[in-house]
Amino acid sequence: xxxxxxxxxxxxxxxxxxxxxxxxxxxxxxxxxxxxxxxxxxxxxxxxxxxxxxxxxxxxxxxxxxxxxxxxxxxxxxxxxxxxxxxxxxxxxxxxxxxxxxxxxxxxxxxxxxxxxxxxxxxxxxxxxxxxxxxxxxxxxxxxxxxxxxxxxxxxxxxxxxxxxxxxxxxxxxxxxxxxxxxxxxxxxxxxxxxxxxxxxxxxxxxxxxxxxxxxxxxxxxxxxxxxxxxxx
Length: 233
Hints:
This protein has helices at 16-27, 44-49, 69-79, 91-117, 121-135, 137-146, 159-165, 168-178, 189-198, 202-207, 211-232; strands spanning 7-11, 33-36, 58-61, 64-67. It is α+β, with helices and mostly antiparallel strands. A hairpin with a 2-residue loop joins strand 3 (58-61) and strand 4 (64-67). The radius of gyration is 18 Å and the shape is globular.
């Protein structure tokens, strides 16, 4: 495929942002080498490829690194333009999709991390309420962007679908660990139906992290946070 060349992806199997890029690469039909990174002991390649943030994902294409998952998805969409576009064709549609994708990273990711980080049931219930409030506007966004079709992008999975969809696996993990439901069918029925449909797509199945890996990683994070809180007292 034109523009393919040598493609590597630095990520962790549990990172929703790396999952996002993996789904984009799959949708565009791009072959790549996946290199798992240890974020508790960061290697030289990651530090050299992303010296500013020192985090995953990083796409290395023809020796040049591209950082930040949304930027990577747009890069992939433009470089491998021969496959179906992930972003809408019209400028307004692209602007709307980018707005909501930024909203998800700015608001939704911290909201569900708050649920994971909560030390008490009371605190977790408060964090869940906050997350549900963040999720609610996505119901109207889905109706607006989809035009009544199956996905935010219409008939097929696109940019905003994977921007939100990469979080769904962690929502399942939070339900497994704490019994919470982040996308509530009673409050956001269209979004709940979309989520059920999305996780059954080939792109989602190809990139889905193992539940055990997410639960184990969550345990490490919670132990680290608890130790830091105890040290601060």
